[in-house]
Every structure is written in C-alpha cells, then in structure tokens.
Design brief:
The protein is of the alpha/beta class. The protein folds into two domains: 6-211, 3-Layer(aba) Sandwich (Rossmann fold), CATH 3.40.50; 218-486, UDP-N-acetylmuramoyl-L-alanine:D-glutamate ligase. 39% of the residues lie in helices and 14% in strands. The chain has 19 helices and 17 strands. The strands form two sheets. A ten-stranded mixed sheet has the order 8-17-16-15-14-13-12-9-10-11, sandwiched between helices. A seven-stranded parallel sheet has the order 3-2-1-4-5-6-7, with helices on one face. The longest helix has 19 residues, at 23-41. It is elongated and about 80 Å long. The structure holds ligand NPW, adenosine-5'-diphosphate and potassium ion (K). It catalyses: (6S)-NADHX + ADP = AMP + phosphate + NADH + H(+); (6R)-NADHX = (6S)-NADHX; (6R)-NADPHX = (6S)-NADPHX; (6S)-NADPHX + ADP = AMP + phosphate + NADPH + H(+).
Length: 488
C-alpha cells in the first residue's frame, strides 16, 4: 500500500478539482463516512460532540454533524477559529449544517460523550494553540471516546510527531490513502484503529502524485520470496555464514544462525574463533561450524564461491577485527548489525567509503542507539522524522537501512521506504534483533534483493512474534515464522 504525505494528498485534491471533480462532493462523502463510522461504533451514544477547526477538516466535521443530526442523534458542535473567516467548501458545509456551533472554550467534556475530532487534519502546520491543547487534556481526563477525522488533531501526517498535546482517538478514519503519520510513532498510538475510506479520487491521480513510501506488506516483496521447487537442493537455497564472538559470547550469533536456517537458507555455517568451537559445537546440530580467527582465514574461506550471504555483528565484539572483516566482505550480501555497526562509531566514513565502491549489497540494522553512533548528525536533526532520517542514512551509506523500533522503517539508497507495522510489543526482548538479522541474512542468501529482503525480514519477524505470542523469548521466534506459501 502506497502512503501519501499530506502534501501529496493536497496535490491529489487539486488535480481532482482541476479534472472537474466537485471538491464539495468529496467533502460530503468524507463527512458522511465519518458519521457512518461513528454510528456503527457507538450506536447507543447519549451525546455526539463534533469539534470543528477552521479548514477542510472542520468542513468534514460540519457534514458529519448534519448527517448525525439527521440520523436522530443529539449533536453539539464546538468550533475553533473565527467563523467569519470560513471559506469555500467549509463555509458551504457550515451554512448547510442545522446545528449551530458554540466556541470551543464553552465545551466541558463528559465521560459518555462521543467526540468527533475535526479540528485539524492534513493541514496542521504548527504546534496547537494552548487553548486547544488544554481542551485535549480535558478530553483525556474525562475519558471521552474520540473518533478522529483524517488524523488525530496535533499529529503530523508526514512524520507522526505530536505538535503539542495531541488528541488520542479510539478510531481514525482517513480518506483514499493513509499517511506515514498513521504508522510512525507516536502517531500510530494516537490513531486507535485505522479505517481508510474511498471518497472517489481516481487511482490515476493518486498514482501520479505518490512517491515511493509504502506500508510494509507482503505485496511489496512477495514476488521475490524464495520458492522451494522439487528441483531445489541445499546449495540452490543459499549458504549463510554467521560470524560468532569468542568463548562465552556465542549466544547471539547462534540465535541468528538458527533463525537463518528456519528462514530457509539451505546451509548455515557459524564462523567461530577457535576458543569458542567447543561451546558452539555443544549447542549446534544442523548448523555447521567453521573455525575462522582472522582476516587471512576469512579470505581463504571466501574463496568458496557458493557462500551467498553473511551476518556480522551479533555478539561479535567491537573493534578492529569487525572493521577488517566488514571491509573484506564489502560487495557481498551482508547484514551488518549490533557490534558490527558500533565498531564504526569512531569512523563511520570508513564504512561508507568501503560500501561506496560497490552496488548496494549491505543491510544495516541499527536500533536507535546504533543509528546515533553511525549517523550522529542525522539522528540529532530535529527537523527530520524517522522516515527522512532513515532515507538520509541509506543515501549516505549506499546500504539498505533498517531503522529498528516499534515502528521499524526500511529505506534504500534509491529512495524507496517502507514502514513496518505488524510487530507486537513483546518483540522487545533480548536477542530479538539477532533473530531478525538471521532472517534477513537467510533471505539474502536465497537471492532476495537487499531492500526486499529487509522488508520481508521485518514483516516475518513481526509475524513470528505474533505467532509465538506474548511472553515469548527470542528462542521461540524462529518456530513462529510463517510458511512462505501461506503468506498472502
Ligand atoms: N484529501 C482529500 O482528498 C480530502 C480531504 N478532506 C479533508 O481536508 C483536510 C485538510 O484540509 P486543510 O488543508 O484545509 O487542512 P486542515 O487540517 O483543516 O487545517 C488547515 C487549517 O488549520 C489552520 N491551522 C493549521 N495549523 C494550525 C494550528 N496549529 N493552529 C491553528 N490553526 C492552524 C490553517 O490555518 P493557516 O495555517 O492557513 O493559518 C487552516 O485554516 C483533511 O485532513 C481532510 O479532513 C476532505 O474534505 C475531503 C477531501
Ligand atoms: N515496542 C516494540 N514493539 C514492537 N517491536 C519492537 C519493540 N521494541 C523493539 N522491537 C523490535 O525488537 C527488535 C529488538 O532488536 P534489538 O534492539 O537489536 O534487540 P537485541 O539486541 O536484544 O536483539 C527489533 O526488531 C525491534 O524492531
Ligand atoms: K482531526
């Protein structure tokens, strides 16, 4: 699913009007859909309260209020801004509304109120007025049920950031296409359930304005998923190498390797220093072992051209050895995670220089702390949201960047971006990231391109978390992976 920024949605609106589509008719459909959603969810509501802002979001509110009134509901409207300034479609919606509004300051929220939040949507450009913020706090205190129109007021549709105190809705109804702010935090938490309603803007217009930001769903990468055929054999399904730390620090790499095998790689080898071989052997069966102690031994191992992908970082140790291995692996499909990323904290340019000499084959999987180490200036740039930060990082590093979190974002150097939204909160557990890097390494080994492998990896990791259920530990995740043939 393509996501549209508020600016792109605005462009679509203008193009729709220019092509002869009646903009007031679009507003009618939007407002009536809001009324229907409210009635469906709260059929026994005592009082409906519609909060209307000065722009088209408020216009949707006046239409919804009229429809609710005509359905026999007890409806009150409270408005923000000067009614004398209403223009165009909003003025028309206001004039046709049988319920006359009172100023916002007159509203005292009650627990049983069902509130339609039509204050601000896609046109929010700055932090909310203090009077609006204090009303939002009162709504929260009263515990009123809120249905948000397009976006919860105060949430930026582009970044998901809260511009001041933002409305928290139990349901949000948006139109045509969701926006990044519906899935990025904190926006996602403010939306409640999300409904996308088709008000009739033609697909050709939406496609012509859309960029390359997507919700991370199987349709984005399913065609690239490895398919097992009767003619397959283990070498055709790729050979993944996971580098392990030394004695006492092999757990993270073993988790990663196990996930790699379960995610379909035909062969998985744990490359361990000599002092960890006994420990690793005691824990492994299907996964193979190879002693690799230094760059010379790694170079020798890399002469085997059947090796197809590598995971470097989980539990590996921070330092020169990680940097040397990384440089030697440049140009190969590699997931660089954890210690592999942190090893470049003092000299990120060394990594970027190394990656700049090859086509994109690396996937970097930083959590926020690791992201800040590798891209300190991008991380601290307050003008950028998570999506723009991850895009800037991919462009600088010439790698696919998977910026982890509850709202993981995956970006490619060519500008493509996907937001992942299927990860349950109980994935925040020790070793969960190691499993993710193993899954992505496995998909790379099975010849998935890096952006698709990272997107599929994040989604499969989320699905595995859902299947393994609350209370899982990272060891449970590989067994929760869904079967590829059942993904739709
Ligand atoms: N997309 C579609 O297909 C369709 C979209 N539709 C609907 O249109 C909505 C977008 O409408 P919109 O562009 O008029 O923006 P909206 O959110 O009403 O706010 C703009 C107003 O708020 C003001 N303002 C902004 N920030 C402020 C602040 N912090 N504090 C105070 N004021 C502030 C701003 O004033 P200004 O910045 O100009 O001073 C302006 O007056 C969209 O969310 C959806 O609900 C439907 O009708 C059907 C078709
Ligand atoms: N609150 C959350 N909801 C959903 N997923 C989360 C949440 N917090 C973390 N995750 C996911 O869990 C994984 C944690 O990885 P990481 O931070 O590297 O942990 P570790 O180093 O313990 O393996 C990432 O895939 C991240 O996206
Ligand atoms: K709103």
């Amino acid at each position: 699913m393509q996501l549209l920024t508020p600016e792109q949605m605005g462009q679509a609106d203008q193009m729709a009007a220019a092509s002869g589509i009646d903009s007031h008719r679009l507003m009618m459909k939007a407002g009536e859909a809001v009324s229907a959603a409210v009635l469906r969810r709260f059929p026994a509501a005592v009082r409906m309260v519609v909060l209307c802002g000065p722009g088209n979001n408020g216009g949707d509110g006046y239409i919804a209020a009229k429809a609710l009134f005509e359905a026999g509901c007890n409806v009150s409207i409270y408005h923000f801004g000067d009614l004398a300034n209403l223009k165009g479609d909003v003025a028309q919606a206001f004039n046709a509304c049988p319920v006359k509004p009172q100023p916002l300051a007159a509203y005292a929220p009650k627990a049983n109120d069902v509130v339609v939040d039509a204050l601000f949507g896609a046109g929010l450009t700055r932090s909310l007025d203090p009077a609006v913020q204090s009303l939002i706090l009162n709504l929260r205190k009263a515990g009123s049920n809120v249905v948000a129109v397009d976006l919860p007021s105060g949430i930026s549709g582009g970044t998901g950031a809260a511009l001041g105190t933002a409305v928290t809705a139990s349901h949000t109804i948006t139109f045509m296409r969701p926006k990044p702010g519906h899935f990025l935090l904190p926006g996602r938490e403010h939306c409640g359930t999300l409904e996308t309603f088709d008000i009739g803007i033609p697909q050709r217009i939406l496609t012509s304005v859309a960029g390359n930001t997507y919700l991370n769903e199987p349709s984005l990468w399913k065609a690239h998923l490895p398919a097992t055929s009767i003619q397959s054999h283990k070498f055709k399904r790729g050979h993944l190498t996971v580098f392990s730390g030394g004695h006492g620090t092999t757990g993270a790499a073993r988790l990663s390797a196990t996930a790699g095998l379960k995610a379909g790689a035909g062969l998985v080898t744990l490359a361990t220093p000599s002092n960890a071989c006994t420990e690793a052997t005691a824990h492994l069966t299907a996964i193979m072992l190879r002693e690799i102690n230094n760059v010379r031994e790694l170079s020798h191992w890399l002469e085997d051209k059947r090796l197809s992908a590598f995971v470097l970082g989980p539990g590996f140790g921070i330092g020169e050895k990680a940097r040397d291995y990384t440089n030697l692996l440049a140009g190969n499909p590699v997931v660089l995670d954890a210690d592999g990323i942190t090893s470049f904290a003092e000299s990120p340019d060394r990594l970027f220089y190394s990656l700049s000499k090859h086509p994109t084959t690396f996937v970097l999987t930083p959590h926020e702390g690791e992201f800040a180490r590798l891209f300190p200036d991008i991380h601290s740039d307050k003008s950028l949201g998570k999506l723009e930060k991850a895009r800037a990082a991919a462009s600088r590093s010439n790698a696919v960047v998977l910026y982890k979190g509850a709202d993981t974002v995956i970006t490619a150097p060519d500008g493509r971006a996907a937001i992942n939204a299927n990860a349950p909160p109980w994935l925040a557990t020790a070793g969960s990231g190691d499993v993710l890097s193993g899954i992505i390494g496995s998909l790379l080994a099975q010849e998935m391109p890096p952006f698709e492998a990272a997107c599929a990896g994040a989604w499969l990791h989320g699905a595995a978390g859902q299947n393994a259920g609350e209370g899982l530990s990272a060891e449970d995740l590989p067994n929760g992976l869904p079967k590829y043939s059942q993904i739709s």
